[in-house]
Amino acid sequence: MYIVLYIVIGIVCLFILLALIAPKKYQVSRSIVINKPLPEVFQYLKHIKNQDNWSPWKKKDPDMKQEFIGNDGDIGFIAKWDGNKDVGLGEQEIMNIVDNDRVEARLRFFKPWKSESDAVTSVKDVGDGNTKVTWGFSGVNKVPVNIFMMLYNVDKHVGKDFEEGLVSLKEILEK
């Protein structure tokens, strides 16, 4: 009886320890330089529907169901999607736009797991008609998800998707 009690106490202590040391926040971003003037790049990026042309997730499920609410490129615009296991179910809402600087959005995922992230696409003039685009997102890992995130490298897995998307974006805008 005491052995079982010690095992249970040990598991609970291990869980608490892992919950304390596991990452509570995550942030992933990637950048690319595009040979186009900043205003032209920003004008394209502020429209969420344009992501269908360069987003790696649209390529993972070209048949996903989509719904749009509001005026694309304006604060409050919402893009909803319902796709296969690779893209899940969720929505993206434009929360803030700083002209020729950044678009801030809230990502809400409902399936395969529920979570929220803050997404930012920003632009910076790097001279000679070139624009640096940085695409990323961040959020909070709640317990017990943060424990599982010790085994899953978000930066590695999502980062490669961001890199793929930015390369597609560059190809589109430099044509």
UniProtKB/TrEMBL annotation:
The chain crosses the membrane at residues 6-22. It comes from the Bacteria. CDD domains: SRPBCC_1 (cd07818). Keywords: Membrane, Transmembrane, Transmembrane helix. InterPro entries: START-like_dom_sf. This is SRPBCC family protein.
